[in-house]
Amino acid sequence: MFAAKKELDLTTSHASLVIGLFEKPEKFTGELAGLDERFEGQLTELVRSGDLSAKLKNITKVHSFGKIGAKRLYFVGLGKEKELSFDKLRSSFGKVFKQLKASKLEETAVYLDTFVTEEISSLDAAHALSEAMALATYQFDGYKQKSNEPEKRLEKVTVYCASLVEEDVKASLSVGYAFGRGTNSARTLVNTPGNLLTATDMANYATDLAVKYDFDLEILEKAEIEKLGMGAFLAVNKGSEEPPKMIVLKYQGKEEWTDVIGLVGKGITFDTGGYSIKTKAGIVGMKTDMGGAAAVLGAMEIIGEIRPEQNVVAVIPSTDNMISGGAFKPDDVITSMNGKTIEVLNTDAEGRLVLADAVTYAKHHGANYLVDVATLTGGVITALGLHTTGAMTNHDGLYKQVLDSAVEAGEQMWQLPLFETEKERVRNSKVADLNNSPGSEGHALVAGAFIGEFTEGTPWVHLDIAGTATTSKDHDLGPAGATGVMTRTLALFVERFEPIEI
Ligand code: BES
Ligand code: ZN
Ligand code: ZN
Fold it and tell me: Which positions are catalytic?
């Protein structure tokens, strides 16, 4: 996929050569002076006339007419050098890779040195490049009958980088690519419809990951789930023909099983709402209700590739939320694994129920820190819109580490409060310890507060991705559909994690 070379050779033939250009003054110096010379100064002329602009994310394609080995030049505007961030660089790369994909190019070269600044090293730029390349060229093929013509895909990228050893550049390229690919795997899981991705399919997927990356694997079957007393998880599965699966993956990167990070992902393969049934408009798209599980599995894939010195246990409660004569109902009282009883007031508030037992089970496996990810509430969309993940926490230090990772991953996140008032609302039931739906005000807050009841003092961050797991619009780093949100944030968080004094 990637080849790294030190010296830029303008005579080598490439389908295209991608070059970064900074604003004011836009100049062709160093190796690029030679390029401009071959074009008899016409590139400088294009800049002067305004046809070649270095404004951020402005992309200009110039045919080389045989003046150099590469058939086409793609100039990527990077704006002012001092203002370029890693995030802007990544999306600039994304934009140009999308264009290369649309032009059906199978091969390209990138002159990496032209993307480097004082703040962004060649290694960072290499990471941004390969991550963007994987993300931006992602497509979900779907299930249409295919034409016979094989799809042309970008398959080879030659990276010219004079300032570093080829091996280091290659290593950074493969890490960035792993981050992109893990995210794409999460996207594919989310894009897959509920009839083709059942809890059993999800368990099989996790099994394949475990084999590939040598993770410890545990798949709890219904009988074992019953034995462990996971009454909240089981309640949600009651209406289903599909057996539930509690999926556990363990990655041990330290000598001892200490400082264990628990990643918990909501894995509802389809959410009808149950007897508190969704509307006919609201039910469409509920195949994506396993977006949290997908992010956790995508992050585990990245972790399997980069193998950080950390310990991680991933726990995914997976089932669909269906209706039948046997389904759970409003007014039912159920008992969770940690013994707390729950009055069900709304069967559509099922995510917090399956997560309650999953959080308890992650602790059972030694998790000292917890991060749960879930397409949990429509309320988070009302509060924060479609581009920002809502976060809640019982531990500011842990949250800061998650937030820092989100910033670096380019994924927007905003903290919502966990106040006593919401905890009290969740604890307000005449017949049980808790209720799963204390009224329509502040849905996102009470859902988070409910999960918090099961953390029992363990530092925890809750991430509500109901708004961010999918997008209706094409963007620089991918097509409309599943975003794979939080995959990279979780993987970075694990990679950088520093244990907290408790
Ligand atoms: N899966 C939904 C949340 C959701 C909504 C995800 C929109 C993606 C897009 C969740 O299980 C749910 O139904 N939540 C309800 C809770 C309510 C009934 C207390 C909600 O937020 O409306
Ligand atoms: Zn629901
Ligand atoms: Zn749901």
Answer: 278, 352
